[in-house]
Amino acid sequence: SGASRMKSAVRPPRTSSVSQKSVEATRQARCFSPFSSSPLKAGTNAPDTGVDGGVAAAAADARRRRLRVLVVEDHADSARVLGRLLGDAGHVVHAARGVADALDLIAREPFDLLLSDIGLADGSGHDVMRAARRQQPGVCGIAMSGYGMDDDLRKSREAGFSDHLVKPISFEHLDEVIRRVVSNGQKDPVD
Question: Which of 165, 153, 183, 67 has the alpha carbon at shortest distance from 116?
């Protein structure tokens, strides 16, 4: 399947297994969301200026809070680059090319964070987030879309996403949002 091909292309080698304690803590954790305290305003993301420097700076910090991340993106090159950047930052990354592949992975693997495109060929990232929240209540979610009108933000919030980013997204901005979304400190790192 597309998920298997993508997973092996972006997933760094695992050096240890995930403990049951870590999985249970992840399921119980809550995510910080700007939606809950104030309306999220769609804005322009900073231009990507020196991804390598941003990855290097983020890598040291990320190793202390290594996350299990599911990237749902139907554009193969975008998924590969995003997976590589997240992996270089110390995260364990799985990738799915659509809703069906994502639902299969969610049923088999625990995740701390879902990064999902909204417009997918076989459905919507909103569908993926709703299913993820039903099966893994503690999972955080960040929507990625080319659209950022108030109605788009509302739909993402209602689906359970903690934040909604408008493409193009620099890795530095994404890393800041990931840190904010999981900043409550209740996430146990991957063992």
Answer: 165
Measured distance CA(26)–CA(23) in Å, rounded: 5
Contacts of 72 by beta carbon, 8 Å cutoff, 6+ apart = 95, 96, 97, 98, 99, 101, 102, 114, 115, 116, 117, 120, 125, 128
Work out the angle between the directed axes of helices 51-63 and 76-88 (0-180°, nearest 10).
Answer: 50
Residues in the chain: 191
How far is it, in rounded angstroms, from Cα 162 to Cα 33? 5
Sign of CA dihedral 28, 22, 71, 165: positive
CA nearest to 111, candidates 127, 132, 125: 132
* Predicted TM-score (pTM) of this structure: 0.69
- Write out pLDDT tens, residues 37-71: 333 333 323 333 344 455 545 444 544 579 999 99
pLDDT in tens, 164-190: 999 999 999 999 999 999 985 333 333
Whether the CB-CB separation of 115 and 69 falls below 8 Å is answered with yes
